């Protein structure tokens, strides 16, 4: 369903079906971009990011971007833009809650999350909340109090994801300096989003390292430290996870799915799939 | 066999029944006597598919803990709050899902729980 809803507090929700190219534009507020079916490409400077239903993108206020989709794809996208004031109120109450537990009266000392503009996993609570919200809006619900309740919770969920994906992963890096950890993790996220966006291509380690502005050795070592997997293992898991979506939601034959998610050989795909999920792709499709 | 009634005790019978019927959408379906000299009122909610047995008890020492399953915790939390139910815990995330809690006038605790599967592939 297509609609664009601006709430009285200037939070904005946009739902769009069907792909269309949108030329360069600026985000006016912090924006969360979801794709519920198909995929959508975002071009931000030199970065080309593809969003699938298992991931979402954060865009900061003032980021220039353009979007595009494949012509033959049915794309359903959903975007939430948070008004500055709403976001500030949320941050104040969030930091207040957490400061009061740690360090009374020193609200300024707390480092507020910088919104790292990258791709995050779309799963768990944020997914439940966004789907509930979208269902209500599709049904024509108008109660802004309730809509804002969902938006408030979406921010809570995002802060938790940020904590898991950025803060906790930076902690795992073996560097003494906090600044170094944050910078390395930022570059590792460039590598991760490159994998998310090009998972079905042949990706060489050199390409990946260049995209992340790290040397190959450095990338291999730090990627494993932060994410617990080598880039290759991460890529295989991502391909397998996306093959689940294709097996469940489309009718492409298994042999075609193999190529669509970037595997070359059906037998190795089936072997990996079976090892990972303890079921064959065909049986998974039949049971899904 | 099936689970049929959940007993709740109250010192202020009137207030308790009003809370259940006006705010939670229960209706009175009859009375029953379980113990000598003490009558209980049966109230039913078709939406929740449950019957409560409200019994007057001046000492009011027995409290019940009732967990209501919901498909959308934030939505029902909002609807109940609009109807005037005061929540002692606003929606928060548990390992089992999203849950909010309110008390009835006699202090019985109701949890509104939306179970969520976090191991989805």
Task: Describe, in plain words, how this protein is organized in 3D.
The complex is a heterodimer of chains A (288) and B (121). By secondary structure, chain A is α+β, with helices and mostly antiparallel strands. Chain A has three domains: 1-172, Jelly Rolls, CATH 2.60.120.10; 176-228, Orthogonal Bundle (Arc Repressor Mutant, subunit A); 229-288, Orthogonal Bundle (Arc Repressor Mutant, subunit A). Chain A has ten helices and ten strands. In chain A, the strands form two sheets. A six-stranded antiparallel sheet of chain A has the order 1-2-9-4-7-10. In chain A, strands 3-8-5-6 form a four-stranded antiparallel sheet. In chain A, strand 5 (40-44) and strand 6 form a beta hairpin. In chain A, helix 2 (125-138) runs antiparallel to helix 3 (144-172), helix 3 (144-172) packs across helix 4 (178-197) and helix 4 (178-197) packs across helix 7 (231-249). The longest helix of chain A has 29 residues, at 144-172. The relative contact order of chain A is 0.10. Chain B is an alpha/beta fold and 121 residues long. Chain B is 17% helix and 47% strand. Chain B is built from two helices and eight strands. In chain B, the strands form two sheets. Chain B has a four-stranded mixed sheet, covered by helices on one side. In chain B, a hairpin with a 2-residue loop joins strand 6 (87-94) and strand 7 (97-103). Chain B is globular and about 55 Å long. Chain B: InterPro entries: Glyas_Bleomycin-R_OHBP_Dase, Glyas_Fos-R_dOase_dom, VOC_core.
How would you briefly describe this protein structure?
The complex is a heterodimer of chains A (288) and B (121). Chain A has 288 residues and is α+β, with helices and mostly antiparallel strands.
What labels would you give this structure?
heterodimer, A: 288 residues, alpha+beta, Jelly Rolls, Arc Repressor Mutant, subunit A, 3 domains, four-stranded antiparallel β-sheet, 10 helices, B: 121 residues, alpha/beta, 2,3-Dihydroxybiphenyl 1,2-Dioxygenase, domain 1, four-stranded mixed β-sheet, 17% helix, VOC domain-containing protein (chain B), VOC_core (chain B), Glyas_Fos-R_dOase_dom (chain B), Glyas_Bleomycin-R_OHBP_Dase (chain B)
């Amino acid at each position: 369903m297509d609609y664009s809803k601006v709430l009285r507090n200037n939070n904005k929700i946009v739902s769009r079906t069907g792909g269309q190219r949108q030329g360069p534009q600026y985000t006016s507020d912090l924006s969360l971009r979801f794709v519920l079916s198909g995929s959508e490409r975002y071009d931000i400077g030199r970065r080309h990011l593809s969003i699938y239903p298992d991931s979402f993108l954060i865009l900061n206020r003032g980021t220039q971007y353009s979007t595009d989709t494949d012509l033959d794809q049915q794309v359903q996208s959903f975007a939430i833009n948070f008004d500055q004031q709403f976001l500030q109120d949320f941050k104040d109450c969030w930091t207040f809650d957490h400061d009061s537990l740690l360090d009374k009266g020193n609200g300024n000392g707390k480092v507020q999350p910088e919104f790292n503009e990258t791709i995050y996993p779309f799963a768990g609570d944020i997914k439940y909340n966004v789907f509930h919200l979208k269902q209500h809006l599709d049904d024509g619900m108008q109660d802004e109090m309730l809509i804002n309740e969902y938006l408030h919770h979406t921010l809570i969920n995002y802060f938790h994801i940020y904590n898991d994906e950025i803060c906790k992963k930076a902690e795992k890096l073996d560097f003494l300096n906090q600044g170094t950890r944050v910078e390395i993790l930022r570059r590792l996220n460039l590598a991760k989003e490159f994998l998310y966006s090009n998972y079905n291509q042949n990706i060489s380690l050199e390409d990946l390292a260049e995209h992340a502005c790290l040397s190959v050795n450095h990338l291999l070592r730090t990627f494993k430290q932060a994410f617990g997997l080598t880039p290759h293992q991460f890529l295989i898991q991502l391909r397998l996870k996306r093959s689940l979506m294709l097996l469940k939601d489309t009718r492409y034959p298994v042999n075609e799915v193999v190529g669509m998610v970037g595997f070359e050989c059906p037998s190795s795909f089936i072997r990996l799939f079976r090892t990972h999920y303890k079921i064959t792709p065909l049986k998974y499709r039949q049971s899904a | 066999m099936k689970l049929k009634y959940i007993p709740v005790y109250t010192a202020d019978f009137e207030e308790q029944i009003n809370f259940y019927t006006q705010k939670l959408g229960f209706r009175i379906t009859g009375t029953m006597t379980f113990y000598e000299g003490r009558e209980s009122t049966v109230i039913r909610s078709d939406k929740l598919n449950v019957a409560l047995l409200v019994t007057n008890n001046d000492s009011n020492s027995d409290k019940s803990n009732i967990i209501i399953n919901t498909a959308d915790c934030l939505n029902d939390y909002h609807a109940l709050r609009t109807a005037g139910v005061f929540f002692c815990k606003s929606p928060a995330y548990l390992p089992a899902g999203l849950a909010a809690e309110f008390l009835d006038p006699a202090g019985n605790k109701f949890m509104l729980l939306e179970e969520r599967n976090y191991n989805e592939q």
